[in-house]
């Protein structure tokens, strides 16, 4: 008689054991990223500089110059430790994309990598020289206070 109830007893206890174990609901990744971004946005400052990239071509000097305009330039996620400073130089192409970002002042490999990944996604309205899009060098410094 015990042999008849053994399989059903085993199934019942297994189901009961699985039902009693509860795992916490995972936090949405986007919520965690949003919290990190909020912390970062409050402490980062940036200073940008732009200058024309000289070309070998015999192009005349610009009489009507318009600097590049930021379209999308999200801040990189950099730790909020005091005294962090990262300087980057890059080219804004005639297509508005960032080319050749270069770290001028490092804050460590991990922070530098985060900054470079963010800068590569930036988009600008290109600088204009006499109504023609032109390449521009940009320099930016991220620092925490």
Compact description:
By secondary structure, the chain is an alpha+beta fold.
Question: What report would you give on this structure?
Answer:
The protein is of the alpha+beta class and 145 residues long. The protein has a single domain, classed as TolA/TonB C-terminal domain (2-Layer Sandwich). It is 32% helix and 34% strand. The chain has 3 helices and 9 strands; from the N terminus they run H-H-E-E-E-E-E-H-E-E-E-E. Strands 1-9-4-5 form a 4-stranded antiparallel beta sheet. Strand 7 and strand 8 form a beta hairpin. It is elongated and about 95 Å long. The N and C termini lie far apart (77 Å). The mean pLDDT is 76.
Write a concise keyword list for the protein shown above.
single chain; 145 residues; alpha+beta; TolA/TonB C-terminal domain; three-stranded antiparallel beta sheet; 9 strands; 34% strand; elongated
The count of helical stretches stands at 3
Inertia-based shape: elongated
Please report the first level of CATH classification, the CATH class: Alpha Beta
Give the helix level as a range of percent.
25-40%
């Amino acid at each position: 008689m015990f042999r008849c109830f053994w399989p059903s007893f085993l199934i019942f206890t297994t189901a009961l054991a699985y039902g009693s174990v509860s795992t916490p609901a995972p936090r949405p990744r986007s919520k965690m990223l949003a919290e990190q971004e909020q912390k970062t946005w409050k402490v980062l400052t940036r200073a940008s500089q732009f200058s024309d990239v000289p070309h070998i071509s015999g192009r005349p000097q610009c009489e009507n110059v318009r600097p590049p305009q930021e379209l999308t330039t999200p801040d990189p996620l950099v730790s909020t430790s005091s005294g962090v400073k990262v300087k980057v130089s890059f080219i804004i192409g005639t297509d508005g994309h960032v080319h050749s970002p270069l770290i001028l002042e490092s804050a460590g490999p991990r922070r530098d990598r985060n900054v470079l990944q963010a800068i590569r996604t930036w988009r600008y309205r290109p600088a204009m020289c006499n109504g023609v899009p032109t390449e521009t060098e940009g320099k930016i410094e991220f620092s925490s206070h």
